[in-house]
């Protein structure tokens, strides 16, 4: 069985990025916003085309990365650290989870 893990964005981050992009505050991020918006539909269609594959969309909440240095809004105080997100993705892989996994702050 093939496994494909896709990293998406949670709805809060996606809405913030989309709003900032539409208002003109995020020049050059159209590819990022488009990729995040279409990722789940892509995964659903891919899963139907390849029923033997295990396809998982991982949607972490805000993650403390350098991304936040480039956007006109602040890193949320409860942002996840990258190690937590990486461990959760590994858990999803080894536990053979599929569909959508939300990684949220505790």
Structure notes:
It is a single chain. Helix content is 42%, strand content 16%. It contains 3 helices and 3 strands. It has a 3-stranded parallel beta sheet with strand order 1-2-3, sandwiched between helices. Helix 3 links the parallel strand 2 (54-60) and strand 3. The longest helix has 20 residues, at 30-49. The protein is flat and about 40 Å long.
Produce the secondary structure layout:
Elements: E1 3-7, H1 11-22, H2 30-49, E2 54-60, H3 82-94, E3 99-103
Parallel strand pairs: 1-2, 2-3
Which characteristics define this entry?
3 strands; three-stranded parallel β-sheet; Rossmann fold; alpha/beta; 106 residues
**Mind telling me which CATH architecture this is?**
3-Layer(aba) Sandwich
* CATH homologous superfamily (4th level) name: NAD(P)-binding Rossmann-like Domain
Number of helical regions: 3
Return Rg in Å.
15 Å
Compact overview of the structure:
The chain is of the alpha/beta class and 106 residues long.
């Amino acid at each position: 069985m093939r496994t494909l893990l896709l990293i998406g964005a949670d709805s809060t981050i996606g809405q913030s990025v989309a709003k900032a992009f539409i208002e003109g505050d995020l020049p050059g991020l159209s590819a990022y916003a488009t990729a995040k918006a279409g990722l789940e539909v892509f995964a659903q269609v891919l899963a139907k085309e390849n029923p033997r594959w295990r396809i998982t969309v991982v949607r972490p909440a805000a993650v403390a990365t350098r991304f936040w240095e480039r956007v006109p809004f602040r890193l949320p105080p409860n942002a996840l650290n990258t190690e937590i997100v990486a461990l959760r993705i590994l858990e999803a892989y080894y536990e053979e989870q599929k569909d959508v996994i939300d990684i949220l702050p505790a």
